[in-house]
Amino acid sequence: xxxxxxxxxxxxxxxxxxxxxxxxxxxxxxxxxxxxxxxxxxxxxxxxxxxxxxxxxxxxxxxxxxxxxxxxxxxxxxxxxxxxxxxxxxxxxxxxxxxxxxxxxxxxxxxxxxxxxxxxxxxxxxxxxxxxxxxxxxxxxxxxxxxxxxxxxxxxxxxxxxxxxxx
Length: 167
Hints:
The protein is mostly helical. It has one domain. The chain contains three helices and no strands. The protein has helices spanning 2-6, 11-145, 149-166.
């Protein structure tokens, strides 16, 4: 205390200053410290809430991306299936057209063969008619001439040769 008195300070003033300082601290604590802590706490909660919302948005974005990727994969698969079905259908149609063309070709061949056979038969019939006509004409000539038997045999041989040649 002597030291304090030598400095020109009184213990009453120091005590009053210490008490005032503590009162000032209490007032600061009530007036400033708690409101500042409350503001800081509110800010911390707001930041936490924002971070949680950002996490939720991020998770939602990931789920959406997964759904989009899944749908894209499904769409690609469906597109490939459609393409494969179209290829199969085109192959079937190609085969059907080929079979129809073969059937038509076979029908044309059969029709042509029938026509050729009919034409051949007509030619054979016409040849027979001509042979008969020739035979009739030859017979008429024979009757008109009243030929001897030697000539008759010769004419028969000629007739047989003509018939053989026409076959």
